[in-house]
Amino acid sequence: MTETESTTDAFDRDSVRSASRVAIAALALVGVLYLFTLLPGVDRLVPLTPITVAAVASAVVTVAVVALLLFAAPKVASLTRAALHRTDAANHVERIAENGGAMAYWLVVLAAVLVAHRGLAGAVVPLLDGFAWAYDAAFLIGSFVPLVFVVARLSVTVDPLSELVADRVSGPESTAEADDADDADDVGDAGDAGESPGIDPAGSHGHSIEERWGADDEFGDEADGGADDESTTS
Q1: Which neighbouring-strand residues pair with 202?
Q2: How many CB atoms lie within 10 A of CB 179?
Q3: CA 31, 33, 34, 40 torsion-angle sign
Q4: How far apart are CA 178 and CA 2, in angstroms?
Q5: Which of 86, 108, 122, 216 has its CA 20 to 30 A from that of 132?
Q6: Reduced to 3 states, what is the DSSP secondary structure of residue 208?
Q7: Mean pLDDT of 153-171
Q8: How far apart are CA 74 and CA 101, in angstroms?
Q9: Dihedrals phi, psi of 208, to nearest 5 degrees
Q10: What Cα–Cα distance (Å) separates residue 81 from each residue in 28, 65, 85, 93, 199?
Q11: CA pair distance 103, 200, nearest whole angstrom
Q12: Nearest to 116 by CA among 159, 93, 146, 89
């Protein structure tokens, strides 16, 4: 195994371990929160506030889970990119891997925003009194940011993904077809370069038109014959 392959394997292992650690921690926090809500008295209001003890605990766990999701977003993007990446793949496959990693990142960020909206509602909305709509509006605007990035990455993935589907169904473009296309281009370029406004008076073997058609011999014999007749007459 080469040094590059060893480094790649170590990087992939570290990424998988970090992402799995974050996922396990988030699930553990959710499980602890569920057990906490089963305890007696957690549905009582906190003194001098309209918030229950369960809502406060839910808000604390929500903040922790959101922090874990934001921390895991780059790891998930790296894992997605590594899963789709192939060293000998075509250019459109590399673009799919890059866009897939970016979409995974922003989807995790969007999930963090949605978790925050759901988990903080019990502790924040009662404090807003008649302005509960502002809570939803703030998270709506915040969720638009990752959603826009997801849509943008998805739109630029349509073309390379369609090329990949065509390769899987119909097979990749053959080398013979590519060579024929290149030969056709070369012939066209050579024809354009060989065009001239006049006609070459020399033949393919370096002879002139008169020599190839015997014009010199014919007219030369006639000229010699005419000269002999004149000398005989005189």
Answers
A1: 208
A2: 10
A3: positive
A4: 34
A5: 108
A6: strand
A7: 81
A8: 9
A9: -80, 170
A10: 27, 24, 6, 11, 62
A11: 64
A12: 146
Backbone φ, ψ for residue 213 (5° rounding): -95, 5
Query: For the chain, which residues make up each domain, given as ranges?
Result: 12-170
pLDDT of residue 178: 46
Sequence-ordered alpha helix ranges (H) in the chain: 3-37, 53-84, 91-128, 132-155, 158-170, 175-194, 209-212, 215-233
Tokens representing residue 150 in the block: 């997801």
Q: What is the pLDDT of residues 54-87, one digit of tens each?
A: 999 999 999 999 999 999 999 889 888 888 876 5
User: Among residues 133, 61, 60, 72, which one has the least CA distance to residue 107?
Assistant: 72
| pTM score | 0.65
d(Cα 104, Cα 189) in Å, to the nearest integer? 46
The first and second tokens of residue 25, run together, are: 């921690």
Nearest CA-CA partner of 106 in 160, 155, 143: 143
Calculate Rg over the CA atoms of the chain: 40
pLDDT tens-digit series, residues 167-176: 777 766 554 4
Query: Average pLDDT for residues 5-34, to the nearest whole number?
Result: 76
Q: How far apart are the first and last CA of the chain?
A: 106
CA 62 to CA 79: how far, in whole Å? Answer: 25
Q: Which residue from 212, 4, 172, 188 is spatially nearest to 89, judged by alpha carbons?
A: 172
Cα(118)–Cα(112) distance, integer angstroms: 10
